[in-house]
From TrEMBL, chain A:
The gene is pyrC. Its EC number is 3.5.2.3. Zn(2+) 2 binds at residues 150, 177, 230. Substrate binds at residues 58-60, 90, 276, 307. The keyword Zinc applies. Belongs to the metallo-dependent hydrolases superfamily. DHOase family. Class I DHOase subfamily. It holds the Pfam family DHOase. It comes from Streptomyces erythrogriseus. This is Dihydroorotase. HAMAP family: PyrC_classI_B. Gene3D superfamilies: Metal-dependent hydrolases (3.20.20.140), Urease, subunit C, domain 1 (2.30.40.10). Zn(2+) 1 binds at residues 56, 58, 150, 303. Pathway: Pyrimidine metabolism; UMP biosynthesis via de novo pathway; (S)-dihydroorotate from bicarbonate: step 3/3. The keyword Disulfide bond does not apply.
UniProtKB/TrEMBL annotation, chain B:
Pathway: Pyrimidine metabolism; UMP biosynthesis via de novo pathway; (S)-dihydroorotate from bicarbonate: step 2/3. Residues 3-147 form the Aspartate/ornithine carbamoyltransferase carbamoyl-P binding domain. It comes from Streptomyces griseoincarnatus. Belongs to the aspartate/ornithine carbamoyltransferase superfamily. ATCase family. The lineage of its organism: Bacteria, Bacillati, Actinomycetota, Actinomycetes, Kitasatosporales. This is Aspartate carbamoyltransferase.
Length: 428, 331
């Protein structure tokens, strides 16, 4: 069995300690541990976190292997410090059967860079009409517990109610892409001052908020838990805060880009800023940061959405929606939450590892950094600061909104069950 | 020197007055027996039209030919575009053929800005209307028409529209003409009022440098020019207003309403008009209506823009953004 000693790492940002990994497990955490028989990684004051867990990733395989595959996507995940990603169901074919989710799950196992937990579609073909075989997907080898039509909203209230009720039988959760379809026909960007000037179709905040309001009330009525994908507005924060105060079992995620970027960037008409839900206003950004800090928003999820170059190298209206995010997520969170004093590293571990793993019922992930736990770890050089260079991405796609932007933090090492997937910033 | 004309908001007051003054000179060419200048001899201009627009394309073509440019007309219909070619590839193909300027009409807001700023091509880009964003030469020809009628052909030279009260009526939400006019008229010192049912005003209009009213009748007596915007009948189906008749009753311009305007005030329309909807035949055919003049002035304005962009004369100020932020303080 191979041993690794991580020497002098600030575990969750605390005092420097040594962490000994033996095989797949953390065997010791403490000061001055013996390096005998172990390969030593000098952490030199870097921050050691539990391996990150992303509840919202698009790996594109099967169907759009030109933008990402399970292999390239999991390599990107390892580069970004992730050890477990949840793969969204909007592939071709849609992950709405046991066969497709098992295929994605197996590809993840074979990649060896990061565990892949498939998400199953709520409805057949994401069409919002008929429930997919949720139980079959749960019972498959993939063991699906999170269900989502992400990319589309489960807008029919009866279908949503039934889905919420049905997955209670196996402790599943429905992750809702909250977007009222009629209010967002032809929507191109956040509806407000900027859309009025640019003449781009508006995506009003109310289209998100009204669906969230309905769904927390439905969850309350049927006693289910519901998860809100990529919450993006100050109004949505208020609704989730109210729901939680009533004891409704709602959880919510925010993307890194909604914590940093605003719709002012759309003035460039550069489709690299085109994303769904759209970039909102400064007021929304500040409300989202505050909500993530106070726990109203439970987690950060990337909504990593790779697209080939040609789908962004065009006019705004013709461009695809979405941004890659796995390899920049932690840096953006450091920039917006840690360096601003809103969250400490223990808080980051909670929002990016412990809680997403708990929501997704991911076994062996999101565990404390202590003896006896699986060695899923990530080491971060928090003192680093530098420009984002998409050319260095492991993802097959380059559609990042941060090209050239200076961001703090760099993941130098990632371990998946004791095996290094990233060493000194290089994939193994 | 500014290389492109993308948005009316990019023009300074002096830029705009220079274009209007140059257009007056160009208008004199139209009065000559031979309506042609050698200015753009040997230069090639392509009219790249992704949206049908007979009047704007013909107006640009006439302007280009009067300046002796070589003209290529490219319509997306039946071209490689309909087979899936991207805007970038289309533009690069045209530039490889030695095009000096691209006049682009596109259904997607921001397409001309992308063309001008993405490093795809080096040619000058002139926006001939993009989506619901901007139509700067339309706003310039409208301002030119207003200055001639309200200030005077000769008296207007070097002048702006300071203090003139201009009312725009109709579908502001879907109108690139309205956006360009608000920007340019504000720059030229005019006081702009938008009149429309609330459904046809964009969320966020409150930050524009203009007044907003839902009541046409109270605005008419305080207007030096009233510009009627086209209202497409399809809007009714999307519940922007209940019926065509109700729209006409509340926001259409008929003879009775025109009589409430000051005597010197003019009626404008960017065309094409929907007679019986936003404007009655009586008004459209009256002496106070400048629709036909606007068309003639369009050629002069487009000559002036091409002359100033390609002919070497300098615009006063460079601009880096397509649409500088408007602030509430500008109200």
């Amino acid at each position: 069995m191979s041993k690794t000693l991580i020497r002098g790492a600030k575990v969750l940002g605390g005092e420097p300690q040594d962490v000994l990994i033996d095989g797949e497990t953390i065997t010791q955490v403490g000061a001055g541990l013996s390096a005998e028989g172990a390969e030593v990684v000098e952490a030199g004051g870097k921050v050691l976190l539990p391996g990150l867990v992303d509840l919202h990733t698009h790996l594109r395989e099967p169907g759009r292997e030109d933008s990402e595959t399970v292999l390239t996507g999991t390599r990107a995940a390892a580069s970004g410090g992730y050890t477990n990603v949840f793969a969204m169901a909007n592939t071709f074919p849609v992950a709405d059967t046991a066969g497709v989710v098992e295929q994605v799950w197996r590809l993840g196992q074979e990649s060896g860079y990061c565990d892949v937990q498939p998400i199953g579609a709520v409805t057949v073909g994401l069409e919002g009409q008929k429930l997919a075989e949720l139980g079959a997907m749960h019972e498959s080898a993939a063991g699906v517990t999170v269900f989502s039509d992400d990319g589309k909203c489960v807008h029919d209230a009866v279908i949503m109610r039934r889905a919420l009720e049905y997955v209670k039988a196996f402790d599943g959760v429905v992750a809702q892409h909250a977007q009222e379809p009629r209010l967002t026909e032809g929507a191109q960007m956040n509806e407000g001052v900027v859309s009025a000037e640019l003449g781009l179709g508006g995506w009003p905040a109310v289209a998100e908020e009204s669906v969230i309001a309905r769904d927390v009330l439905l969850a309350d009525h049927v006693g289910s838990r519901v998860h809100i994908c990529h919450l993006s507005t100050a109004g949505s924060v208020e609704i989730v805060r109210w729901a939680k105060s009533r004891g409704i079992r709602v959880t919510a995620e925010v993307t890194p880009h909604h914590l940093l970027l605003t719709d002012e960037l759309v003035r460039s008409y550069n489709p690299v800023y085109k994303v769904n839900p759209p970039l909102r206003t400064e007021r929304d950004v500040l409300a989202l940061r505050e909500a993530l800090a106070d726990g109203t928003i439970d987690i950060v999820a990337t909504d990593h959405a790779p697209h080939p170059h040609e789908d962004k190298d065009c006019e705004w209206a013709a461009a695809a929606m979405g941004m890659v995010g796995l390899e920049t997520a932690l840096s953006v969170v450091q920039e917006t939450m840690v360096d601003t004093g809103l969250l400490d590293w223990a808080g980051v571990a909670d929002r990016m590892s412990f809680t997403p793993a708990r929501i997704g019922r991911a076994e062996g992930h999101g565990r404390p950094v202590s003896a006896g736990e699986p060695a899923n770890l990530t080491l971060v050089d928090t003192a680093y600061r530098g420009p984002v260079d998409p050319a260095g991405f492991a993802s097959r796609s380059r559609n990042t909104p941060y090209e050239g932007r200076e961001l703090p933090g760099r993941v130098t090492h990632t371990w998946l069950r004791g095996k290094a997937t990233l060493v000194d910033g290089k994939l193994t | 020197m500014q290389r492109h004309l993308i948005s009316a908001a990019d023009l300074t007051r002096d830029d705009a007055v220079l274009i209007l003054d140059t257009a007056e000179e160009m208008a004199r060419v139209a009065d000559r027996p031979i309506k042609k200048l050698p200015t753009l001899r040997g230069r090639t201009v392509v009219n790249l039209f992704f949206e049908d627009s007979t009047r704007t394309r013909i107006s640009f073509e006439a302007a280009e030919k009067r300046l002796s440019a070589d003209v290529i007309n490219f319509s997306a219909k039946g071209s490689s575009v309909s087979k899936g070619e991207s805007l970038k590839d289309t533009a690069q193909t045209l530039e490889a053929m030695g095009v000096d300027a691209v006049v682009i009409r596109h259904g997607a807001s921001g397409a001309p800005y992308r063309l001008a700023t993405s490093g795809w091509i080096d040619a000058h880009v002139i926006n001939a209307g993009d989506g619901t964003h901007q139509h700067p030469t339309q706003a310039l020809l409208d301002a030119f028409t207003m200055r001639r009628r309200l200030v005077g052909r000769d008296a207007g030279l070097g002048q702006d529209l300071n203090g003139r009260r201009i009312t725009l009526v109709g579908d502001v939400l879907h109108s690139r003409v309205a956006r360009s006019n608000v920007d340019l008229l504000h720059t030229l010192g005019a006081e702009v009022t938008l009149v429309a049912p609330p459904t046809l005003l964009p969320v966020g209009v409150g930050t524009w440098p203009c007044e907003v009213s839902y009541d046409l009748d109270s605005t008419l007596p305080k207007s030096d020019a009233v510009m009627m915007l086209r209202v497409q009948r399809e809007r009714m189906n999307a519940a922007f207003f209940p019926t065509e008749r109700e729209y006409s009753r509340r926001y259409g311009l008929d003879g009775d309403r025109m009589a409430r305007m000051p005597e010197h005030a003019i009626v404008m329309h960017p065309g094409p008009m929907v007679r019986g909807m936003e404007i009655t035949a009586e008004v459209a055919d009256s002496d106070r209506c400048t629709v036909v003049e606007q068309v003639a002035n369009g050629v002069s304005i487009r000559m002036a823009v091409l002359y100033l962009l390609l002919g070497g004369a300098e615009f006063q100020t460079p601009s880096t953004s397509a649409a500088p932020a408007r602030t509430a303080e500008e109200n």
